[in-house]
Amino acid sequence: MSKVTIYRFSKYDIQNDGMQISRRWGTREAIERICGEVMEETATEVDASAVATGIEGLTVRGFDPHPRTGFQTQV
Q: Among 18, 29, 55, 67, which residue is least crowded by beta carbons within 10 Å?
């Protein structure tokens, strides 16, 4: 499968009159389309299916491109 680079991003929140970090990740093109600010240091390559959600170029809310792997160490 193909890979894409996704980023965390922030966007102006009119309700709180400040920048808010999105709970989604997105491609640079999708973030620019919604006037968000790309957080360059968060660039992560993932399978393209991660952004094949209802909103083109964005992941689902709460997406974690770095899931914990291995054995459970805490209860």
A: 67
pTM of this prediction exceeds 0.90: no
Euclidean distance between the first and the last CA atom of the chain, given in angstroms as a whole number: 36
Cα(36)–Cα(27) distance, integer angstroms: 11
Q: How far apart are CA 44 and CA 65, in angstroms?
A: 7
Chain position carrying tokens 């009159």: 17
| pLDDT single digits (tens) 21-71 | 999 999 999 999 999 999 999 999 999 999 987 889 999 999 999 877 666
* CA atoms of 57 and 30, how far apart (whole Å): 5
Q: Is 71 exposed, middle or buried (0-12, 13-18, 19+ CB in 10 A)?
A: exposed
Compute the Cα dihedral for 72, 22, 53, 5 and give only its sign: negative
